[in-house]
Amino acid sequence: MKKKHLAHSTENYVRNSNHILELDQTIAQAICRVRERHSNTNKPYYYVLDEKGHLIGIISIRSLLTQDPESPLKDIINTKVHKVESRESMYAALAIMQKYHLLSIPVIKKGIFIGVIEIQEYFEEKIEMSSKVKRLQIFQMLGILVEEGPTKSLWRKYMHRMPWVFCNMLGGILCAVISDFYEVLLVNVIILAMFIPLVLSLSESISMQAMTLSIYLMTHKKHSWKKIFLYTFMETRLFFLIALTASISVGALSLLWGHGVGPAIVIFVSIFSSIIITAIIGAFVPIALYRWRLDPKVASGPIVLMFADVITTLIYLSIGFGLLL
Question: Is this model's pTM higher than 0.85 or not?
């Protein structure tokens, strides 16, 4: 499917589904129906319709197998179903599927179930859904589509992204100003200048990992804010171990240049402290943006990188100046 087709109604792309159970069935009768169609389905749930074809709810295969076979099906169905009207656009359907990680979504017309929209509709080639990683990649691709929308102009997309790119530019300018302020240090202790790219890349990498985890928790895990903060705090133990390993490794490596223990200590302390600080910033920036009703998936990266570069440069050169000059 091409992007220009996303404005078309779902009715044009709906597919018939045989993953249907009847509301007046017992669980035993429903299980028999599932067994009859087992060879033709890999779906974990079935749609439940009443005698007029109205979509009443869904039920998982697991629920069927763990309940009393003589119980009525209507007693255990889940009536909270994400669905779309046939007049709604494919973009609306895919947006719901991306938000709730659905592989398919039912389509109704005046309350009557008419079929389903499969996530496969958006992709030209056959995709394999068995891998969890592959599924996440697919939903991330749909997420980009949903964020930008099918009708946004090039200018609107530019205005949506460019302000955050200025954060990177601002970070670079501030780093240049800081480096100029410590020019004497960089001229006299040349090894510190040599290790600036490595020190920066370590902070940037860890802060981006922390940011990615934070965004994942907010968008894929239905945790309370308290649990997200607690989980992020617990992750500081991992940041500590990574910082310790990286700082010892790079600090020891710097001794090979023969500039003495002083620069090695500066590199060790700088890497350790900057990784801890920027990792915490990377974890909390998406949370702050989300609370301020800004898009964390678009804005977090540039902001986190700006803070990581500026803070790491300032820590690195300040410690070097204090210990070596």
Answer: no
